[in-house]
Fold this sequence. Notes:
Blueprint: H1 13-26, E1 28-33, H2 37-47, H3 62-68, H4 71-81, E2 85-95, E3 108-109, E4 116-117, E5 124-130, E6 140-142, H5 151-156, E7 160-164, E8 169-172, E9 180-182, E10 188-192, E11 198-200, H6 208-215, H7 221-234, E12 240-249, E13 253-254, E14 269-270
Antiparallel strand pairs: 1-10, 2-12, 2-14, 3-8, 4-13, 5-10, 5-12, 6-9, 6-11, 7-8
The structure holds 2-oxoglutaric acid.
Amino acid sequence: MTSHTSTIASPTDSMLTTLVEDYARQGHCGPLRVLEPGDAAALWSRIQQFEGDGRNHHLDTPELRELVQDPAITDVVRAILGTDIVLWRSQVICSGGRRTHPTGLTWHQDTYDQLLSIPENGDHCSLQLSFTETQARNAVFVIPGSHLWSDEDFAQRGCIQTRHTKNEVAWSIPRSVESVPVLLGSGEFYVFHPKLLHASALGRLYTPARARAQAANSLPWRVGRKWERMKTRILPLPERNTIAMRFCTSDVEVLPAAYVESPTRNRPFPIP
Length: 272
Ligand SMILES: O=C(O)CCC(=O)C(=O)O
């Protein structure tokens, strides 16, 4: 495949209205298709040729540049953020298979508050497109509605903030808090709010008990044994290959710190 020509219809106005309502209520919307599985596989073969860091290849790879401008994607993002949108980052994410860290990411929110300077009416969101068929075993999990939680809501549920980095605010969340897997077919994507709590399949098992044990540098033997048993049952996870796209409104300033890891692909891309 040299270039991606979408055969997928853009969402209709009534679909967009529903998607925006879903996004406002749950903090995420989808799944939506942008690529047929065959085109997704061809694009994945191209992506596998990238060397080093998988960030911002929409700036130097025509197939990806075309994909990120596909109306099947941009109509949805525009319905959520408004007309003038910028892709400030894309990022290839692979998990499972033979990779050494199959656990993936623990619960977090993609706030990017040290990478983006967001004026009062500015906004941003993320999107993840899958090149593989996801199963509950290897999916990203989300906590619907968590983008609306106050500090009190977090405290009442027994959540503990564990990290605040330039990319994310990370949490450990008790198992009693209901989460759902985002099941995507190859070529499908979902869009999510910066404050939506989400985690990789195994990363979601990072509960306050584990966080406290880790902080005390002592994993209680019961937790440790359970984990070892579970690992032999569930690993290796099926491979899951995706690309994340981070969009913002055009009035958001993307700070230089956003491009430290990709110094040669280092500028926001306004969507025409
Ligand atoms: O794919 C994953 O496991 C995590 C992805 C994620 O957290 C993100 O795109 O923000």
